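Milestone M4 deliverable, item 7.
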Amino acid sequence: MTPRRVCAVLVILAAGVARAQGIESNFKPYVVGGRAAGMGGAFTALSDDGSGGYYNPGGLSFTRSSSLSFSLNAYGVAGGTVKNALGDGNDFVYRDLQVFPVASAGIKKLGEVEPETGVAPHTLYFSIFIPDGLTTDDRAQLGDVTNAYFSRRSNQTLWLGGGYAIRLGRVGIGAGAYALIGSTSYFLDLNIATPDGTQFVILSSRDDLNTLGFVGSAGVRWDVTDQLRLGLSVFTPEWGGGSRKSFVRVGFSTGTSAGGFARQADDLSATPSLPLRVQAGVAWEASRWAVAADLIFLGPRNVHDNPERTADALDRLVIRRPVLNVAVGGEMALGAGFALRAGFFTDFASSDPSRVDVDNTSHVNHYGFTLSGGLRAEHVRTDVGVTGWWGKGTDVIPRNLDFSILARTDATEYGVFVFLATAYEF
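Output delivered:
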């Protein structure tokens, strides 16, 4: 391979390969909330605690008292495997510890308590959510011990906002707005050398994205009977903007010649890609048990930043296709204020599996479960549980490390998280 070909290949590598592994392909790595998290996220027809702003603002009008709630932390492990990602017979395997806060919320009831409902009709709420976040920092050996591949990625989005809900008899209506602050960073380092050291390639690449966007929400909950609840909510696509920075440094020697270059671009754009979300749910609550089910529709969304920089591999292309997910869950009261919950949810990839020229290359469908226990005292609720998911699909790799030929390969992903949530009612 000529030095010019080496340079071209490495620029393609720096621009694309580090961005795989699920970025902007799946919707949720874990489930937000306390009661909701234990029920697999099937909460649209209930939505009656601090996490309700993320599921259905209309349900918050059914809360009976003011409260402060916290999902203190989620601790877990996320990992996966990409077949032949580092050449034929060399899989890239990653596994990393995850620690992050999930949600905090406050609810304020206003107005006189109505005799027919037993609650004040007006509700103000504020919420801070981190519904998605992932950090990986992994390395792999390429054949000889002197050859190494390092990959580090971190992404997180903070939702900050609130809204208002009102209860009109058996119907609750609510609306909200959120500012979304996103941060994503990719780092890749590749070192390949012949045993005698006469030929080598050294590559370092880093991309940083920062976005600020806004999402509006509206929802309704209807208690058809004393047991049957229906819910519907809509969350707008995220609109806003942001910036990207890209840096690449390459050095190489072919034995007869050597060279290298560095390239930095700090004037790139980054458009949020969160799509439209519509949720419909049904729930049945009796004296000691409850069951719920949701359908979650995610709309299509295409983003192409800096198309004029495509020739330099500095554009950003994200293609999301429409996706329909489900969530089901149940709750059983066991006495003394203790409840046991379990749930199931899907998180299908919205990426296009026929494309290899996009940034969201991973197409892995996730199937998840939740299990938790909750304790309710006079003023305090506490929930402890676990969320797990596993998925199988495809990702894009350079065929046998020839980065001018991109192809799909098998990929698996998994995650297990432990969460603790508490709320104080007053």
